[in-house]
């Protein structure tokens, strides 16, 4: 297999991110893994077998498929992912956990359809906006169908409920709409409308309102609604500049909720310090710049929008996770790409990057 300079630079940051993620997952999850499953490295092994290995296979396959095929398959892929999202609510297929139904079980295979939806939406919007560039500025041909699609997806995700994923989906969609050349007035109008919708979602769900209250005043109920973010801040503060050492976190020992999920950045900073956190941020920045660079090298509009959508997904989700766990924005429950535990997320991210690899090879 031959690689151009640009395609090599795609692989290197991804390889380092995945390696870093597995390493930190093995540390962050060691206590919870032992308590829940009787094995200190359950999370690590599960992520390796059901996330990384299928992800690498999908990366390789997608790097070999000529990327224009994805444009042709955009509509069927979107319909398939929406169908999977609907199937979650079928009693014999959907798997409930912690008051939410976000998993789909098909035989021996269990996965999160919402993660698949993120990638298929990027493919669909890239195909849609690249195929009707002259109509992007039209209200009836772009804004209305755009809202219909987002509305349908939103209903399904709120029903689960999974507003965290909905916020990422909306963020990706709005960014791609703007990058495709949307009218400023349409863009501003959409932002106002979506802000109102999210405000209503917060108002009508007590746990979402509690997260907002904990953000506004984390000292009001330190052992209640603000416990999660306060424990995360303690971990970050304890790490200082250089950290307490790999594997030496105290917060992961039954103090910090979700140590392998959305809280893992706090464990990273506690063990590796602000330098470790800065290193991770640098990796995300590196990968984002590589995707932007490749998008500029290709003359294909679909490829450009796909790469930018992929960049927005990875960088945006990483920023939201890190900002939330650092107390800069309300908690969202959104995992950290490549780092948090979740086989579906890792496999789908690598699938999208496999498509990016093919674009890089052909640029």
Automatic annotation (TrEMBL):
First-tier enzyme category under EC: transferase
Major subcellular site: membrane
GO cellular component: cell division site; plasma membrane
GO molecular function: lipid-linked peptidoglycan transporter activity; peptidoglycan glycosyltransferase activity
UniProt-listed Pfam families: FTSW_RODA_SPOVE (PF01098)
Alphabetical keyword list: Cell shape, Glycosyltransferase, Membrane, Peptidoglycan synthesis, Transferase, Transmembrane, Transmembrane helix
Enzyme nomenclature, EC number: 2.4.99.28
Location within or outside the cell: Membrane
Record's keyword annotation contains Hydrolase: no
PROSITE patterns named in the record: FTSW_RODA_SPOVE
Keyword rRNA-binding: no
Membrane topology listed for this record: Multi-pass membrane protein
Domain of life: Bacteria
Chemical reaction(s) catalysed: [GlcNAc-(1->4)-Mur2Ac(oyl-L-Ala-gamma-D-Glu-L-Lys-D-Ala-D-Ala)](n)-di-trans,octa-cis-undecaprenyl diphosphate + beta-D-GlcNAc-(1->4)-Mur2Ac(oyl-L-Ala-gamma-D-Glu-L-Lys-D-Ala-D-Ala)-di-trans,octa-cis-undecaprenyl diphosphate = [GlcNAc-(1->4)-Mur2Ac(oyl-L-Ala-gamma-D-Glu-L-Lys-D-Ala-D-Ala)](n+1)-di-trans,octa-cis-undecaprenyl diphosphate + di-trans,octa-cis-undecaprenyl diphosphate + H(+)
UniProt GO BP: cell division; peptidoglycan biosynthetic process; regulation of cell shape
TM segment ranges: 43-61, 73-91, 103-127, 139-157, 163-180, 187-205, 264-292, 304-326, 338-360
InterPro entries with a match to the protein in the record: Cell_cycle_FtsW-rel_CS, FtsW/RodA
Homology family: Belongs to the SEDS family. FtsW subfamily.
Record-given protein name: Probable peptidoglycan glycosyltransferase FtsW
